[in-house]
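Recap from last week: sequence in, structure out.
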Amino acid sequence: MHRSLEFLAIKAPNGVGQTLDLYEAMQALRIQTASIALIDGGEIAWTEAIGSECAEPIYQAASLSKLVTAVVALRLVDKGVLSLDAPVDGILKRWTSARPPITDGLPVTLRLLLSMRAGINVPSFRGYAIGSSLPTLPQILDGTPPANSPPVAVVAQPGNQYAYSGGGYEVVEALIEDATRRRFADVAAEQVLNPLGMASSTFSYPLPPALLQCVARGHTANGQEISGGWRVTPELAAAGLWSTPSDLAKLLIAITDVYQARSRFLNPDTVEAMLERVGDGPYGLGAAVHGAGDDVVLMKRGHNVGYQSYLLMFPARGQGIVVMTDSDRGFVLANALVRRAAEVYSWPAVGALAN
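Predicted structure tokens:
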């Protein structure tokens, strides 16, 4: 780790702002483990795992899953399997809400789904206790037992406004499965995880034994371990990825390499579309986007019960960071680390850390 990142300005749980070293900050925030990957010069400059016996602890990526899902979908767009702008109801077989009366004939499209502008409800999912009955994807979409979330539906005019929607990404999961006639986890591995060497990442559950031994167990804001170690998230595309900062950094570097014309992992026009906001909302395709030109930055937060994580990438600069924690107070630490990294590595101001 860059030594100057060891000292962080944070607001402790008692509300008092103070400067602490990284280990003191984690103790003050009751964070058991944290893992960091720093990208500089278009490559992983260093990694650090604190509080874990594993060099690469594995975390629930939560909503960071959405960026991976977006890249899976965009790889299929590049191959002609999916279209960004065709109505999704031409492919979907298990979700019938793509063209309800509220749309006045306006279609739900993949572009609108990935940019959170499809008018779809269900912002997030709360997971299931280990040992609980888990819903299938159709049950998640229909909101039928044992699903613990409401039906996924179009509740506003598609394309009219930004509204954060995990439900929309579950529609993307169904779209990918119906278009390929394969399990989403398998398609994600084939299109993204395996080609990029993300060997410690999976959408499959139960976890393979090789990964299970290094899983970081989730904790509440007061440091109490989540019962069973974590809650299960069957909503894969929205929040079901298990991963590490190094693996997610590989994805950010792959996007950067296309942007800088060093790779054809995605079509250049596809990456340009990812990094352009759709409408007046904060999202491009798969993540929030701020700035322009050399200062354009892609950013995403993730929060499942017991886990909070954050990633940020400046593709023109080849600089970025991924922070993952096993705590419901992880955003405080991630925010401090990002601010400090911005000072040390001369990043442009990034504003508020975005969803």
